[in-house]
Amino acid sequence: MDGAPFTSSSSSTFKTASISSSSTSLICLSKKFSRNHLPSKFKSRRNLSVRASNDDSVVTLLDYGAGNVRSVRNAIRHLGFQIKDVQTPKDILNARRLIFPGVGAFAPAMDVLNNTGMGEALCTYIQNDRPFLGICLGLQLLFESSEENGPVGGLGLIPGVVGRFDSSKGFRVPHIGWNALQITKDSEILDDIGNRHVYFVHSYRAMPSKENKDWISSTCNYGDEFIASVRKGKVHAVQFHPEKSGDVGLSVLRRFLLPKSSLTEKRTERKASKLAKRVIACLDVRTNDEGDLVVTKGDQYDVREHAEKNEVRNLGKPVELAAQYYRDGADEVSFLNITGFRDFPLGDLPMLQVLRSASENVFVPLTVGGGIRDFTDSNDRYYSSLEVASEYFRSGADKISIGSDAVHAAEEYLKTKVKTGKSSIEQISRVYGNQAVVVSIDPRRMYLNDPSDVEFKSIRLTKQGPNGEEYAWYQCTINGGREGRPIGAYELAKAVEELGAGEILLNCIDCDGQGKGFDVDLIKMISDAVSIPVIASSGAGAVEHFTDVFSKTNASAALAAGIFHRKEVPIRSVKEHLLKEGIEVRI
């Protein structure tokens, strides 16, 4: 029953809405909302009636056209339900059960709801205590307003203001990863979570208060205790992503869709207590010489076998490997299209199909990188990086990884000190939120005898260089490590954070494929310098290397590829070792 989702005419290129908290558009602000009283601004417009459909197998989905909603669709179908997309406000009013998977930034979402009448219908539906599940932004929009690019008025159904996490307390923003819930009251949909982690990815949150305490069903601690879920009657909303929380997340969706169902999944004995360190499986994807899309792995970025045929190293099929890593317990799966910089991204149909197919059976976050940039084709048609990213999001990506284009943007920003709003980082983060933007840094170690020899940040090495050098700076590269640029990894990391990146994937060409451990010196320097999460990459060869990087640096996650592809070190072994060493991970 899938139809085209209701979107505005420019859904793939939303402009940030200029809505303030005092706006008189279709925003409803009410400090004392209850199920018996629809906020007066909507109530005065017209008398709307709710009539539920009779098909128990149908879920109505409010997809306003931004972000990765494909994963929610796949999870719903996985549970045996059909989807009816909202086309008009009447579809909301007639829904038997409604899911609102809000993705992206607050203002563009409210802009769509206001300009289409969806906000009014949504308030009417919720006021009538109809079955509703809001996800992530779908929870935040229920509050009075948000500070994100604002203040911006919300639906006003729950008292409170959505504010940004305070990074000055030493916590990295965005809040990305698997964290624990503190369930405060019977929620029904959370009954099967037990002691397990769920997946969060957000920079803004709503805080508990006396005015909204009767709504709160669970909280989460990340610097402060924030609202993780709400429930009143048949109305539910969660800040985490059930569609990205593996089996435990599917149980939340199942509880909402089948409230009387009983599950017999065995719960883990170990109690989730805080944000877990993430173990990420990376798949470098490219076409081989026969034109097939394969997973490969480089040795210092060289992906060809050093044999007579000099073929591209083939370690498996991307969709099959992604599904296997999900079953093995990977916290995220990252696809890197390593030929992306040579091809037009929107024409890269095989990679888009990989994402679509993988997201059907992989219910943890998917990141894709390679070739995300502004582009003008042979017919002089211009495509913005936002349009390119939007295609990847619609195909199943949760996060976009930007490499070479981020280097160029950072260089320009450091030269001019001006944020133009035109860089890929700024465009995508403005619409989808900075939590959707990962910057992949590919530096090469440049040894020094004297740190004053260069203008870039250098560090004293724990292990001397090949000629006894005690210092090094890390030169950033582009185009798969083939071209060095006049910018250091430290300077790049600081610049992209200011431009709006939400996470850094930190590679090291010197360590790539060597299996001797991560470059702890580099990772410590960068993770200490920025307040956004850092993913350690390049060099993992044993379980001890993961413990080493987590215990000696502030890395939030560690990524590996070859050792997983070649089955040298299983993901489960990595996590078991980390647990033994007292490092919190998701089981």
**Total count of helical runs of at least 4 residues:** 17
Gap between N and C termini, in Å?
36 Å
**What is the SS-derived class?**
alpha/beta
**What gyration radius follows from the Cα positions, in whole Å?**
24 Å
User: What percent strand?
Assistant: 15-25%
Which runs of at least 5 residues are low in confidence (pLDDT < 50)? Answer: 1-47, 298-306
* Largest sheet, spatial ordering of strands: 2-1-3-4-14-13-12-9
Q: Describe the main β-sheet briefly.
A: 8 strands, mixed
Number of DSSP E strands: 29
Q: Can you give the mean pLDDT?
A: 86
Q: Helix proportion of residues, in percent? A: 25-40%
Structural features, described:
The structure is a single chain. The protein has 587 residues and is an alpha/beta fold. The protein has an 8-stranded mixed beta sheet. An 8-stranded parallel barrel has the order 15-17-18-21-22-27-28-29, surrounded by 8 helices. Helix 11 crosses helix 13.
Summarize the structure.
By secondary structure, the chain is α/β, with parallel strands linked by helices.
What characteristics describe this protein?
8-stranded mixed sheet; globular; 8-stranded parallel beta barrel; multifunctional enzyme; alpha/beta; glutamine amidotransferase; 17 helices; hydrolase; 26% helix
